[in-house]
Amino acid sequence: MKSIASAPAKIILFGEHFVVHGTKAILAAIDKRVTVTSTFTNDNTIKVNSQLGTLEIPISSSYEEAKSEFRPFIFLANKMINSNQNVSGLEITIDSDIPIGVGLGSSSACCIAAAASISELFKKLSSEKILNLAIEAEKTIFPDTSGADCTVCTYGGMIEYPSIEKISNTFDLNLLIANSMIPHNTKNSVEKVNKFKENDEDRFSQLCNLENRLIDEVIIAMKNNDTTTLGSKMSENQKYLEEIQVSNNTLRNMINSLNEISLGSKITGAGDGGCVIALVEDENMDKVPALLPKDKEYFSAKIDTKGVVWSTIEE
Ligand code: MEV
After folding, report:
1. pLDDT at 177 over 90
2. Is this structure's pTM higher than 0.85?
């Protein structure tokens, strides 16, 4: 039997970093996906095939013995195998069209798709159980995760985290994603913000309150289809991200350029590299290439409404 699951990438419209410290956040799943296929084998190994390479280790190995990028998969395999001693091997193949390490939730989407794919070989789990399993797996590489990325990858659509209720999206704007092509490490950026908080608890707490208030205003703007306010709130959120120092010159230059033709723009995800997001009207989309340096990639994202999907094939 083959078990196949796929999960979407994500963008954070509002609230990254602050969400790790308990604020709300607005996230959306987007139309880029990772697919994970799992099968039983008789090799007494766990084998993981991905764009990052192949790992094959004895079935009794712990996830700590694996290189960090493979740990979530070994963790999930161990967890399921330990509940079913008859298994003599597992092969997990990851196939992704989500760029890695640029803030689009590649790691969370992989954890969700892997949790759904591997668990389905053993027993049927609810989406909520798959989400909890995936968050545990992601913690093997990123212990401080807020769980927001995994949550939106599971349920799809646009959500006001921690709620999983979908926000209806009636605005007719392009969600332009521009990739700085600077890889980043979410764990390091989150640790940097932890240091900012340690150094100035009062200001950090004020910023968290400001972020929560901003998100309340965004929800009202979305209900009123008030795209001008929505865009200006993005730029306001960017100021908070600048203050906690997760921006840099490349991102600032991209944001400043995109502000010329968009209603607002900001970092999406951990920052320090990765992607920026801008709200762009249709008639301005053809002005984008002239605004971005030639080495930057960009695309207009559609919101994914499905979240994680999975099925099995008898062979
Ligand atoms: C990373 O995509 C988003 C952060 O807020 C971390 C997290 O929520 O776990 C930076």
Report:
1. yes
2. yes
